[in-house]
């Protein structure tokens, strides 16, 4: 393989099943076991973490480098999930959602370094500044949108200082430390990589200054390239260089027709008459996420006609209508999906976070059928 590219899969911290609809999830998520659940019920020693461990192990067998551990209001806490999964796996890295506002940098560094020791340096941070104001307020965070990014920037600056060792002092606008800094053996761990997202101006400024990887949800290629160009210039002005990651849902089957059938199956099951539920990660429900607003604009709720949402070769923007989350998915034969993802590598992405329901079976499918085809083409 000529080019260094890392492939991550998503751990479904939010529940899982064959459908994207949470009503049909049957893998023993945090809800009381329902009649259709195929997992043991509450009260047994088996728990949802056992299912997440199966997904994590499937990722290893399937050749993924790592797994995203996302956070949302109802989900399990990602760092604790990652700690448990680290002991169930051997090689998988964990890109763990982490919200700087909620834990002081010194304590976060201690937690991060401890997890590096537990996992053999397999932790990366997916720094989440705030999906939306309502979700932040639910956690007791009332800072306005741009101030949240100001806090993230200073938090990351302190983190860098803490990994230089003790004594570390910091007198900033939001954080003050005296005689801080990690001491051995925590100091000798690898500082987790900083994966970063957010499409607002405030987010881009912090990304340019502190991120290792800037993550995007799939948008038309020209828009993503314009964003990369801007960020490259902003980072270069600071003597830095960014890498780029793409988070995208995949519908891959032997033939293109079968893959579209799978997307259509989700579409046909969706109840378009039901009001769209508030989703803390999107602009629905009064959120202030610029990234989510860009996704909503791409969805353009035009009709209930499936074909209206096919917006390019193997690109379907209907996904965001049938479940909360990013809007555009890639739909195609194994070879077509590999070709599309290879095009994104050529466009400058070197990290991919892929996902599909059910995460267990689809991790194996994508690992067997799609990843080798991409690796062969690089
Ligand atoms: C790849 C990716 C993963 C994300 N994961 C999460 C997540 O797990 N939880 C969350 O609340 N927000 C998540 N977000 C949202 C963003 O981090 C960001 O907070 C949000 O888009 C608001 O920022 P903005 O207004 O600058 O766009 C993710 C965004 C991207 C692109």
From TrEMBL:
InterPro entries: Luciferase-like_dom, Luciferase-like_sf, SsuD_RutA_monooxygenase
Any Pfam family: Bac_luciferase
Domain Luciferase-like: 44-350
Keyword annotations of the record: Flavoprotein, FMN, Monooxygenase, Oxidoreductase
BP-aspect Gene Ontology terms: alkanesulfonate catabolic process
Gene Ontology MF terms: alkanesulfonate monooxygenase activity
Protein's name according to its UniProt entry: LLM class flavin-dependent oxidoreductase
Organism from which the protein derives: Paramixta manurensis
Lineage summary: Bacteria, Pseudomonadati, Pseudomonadota, Gammaproteobacteria, Enterobacterales
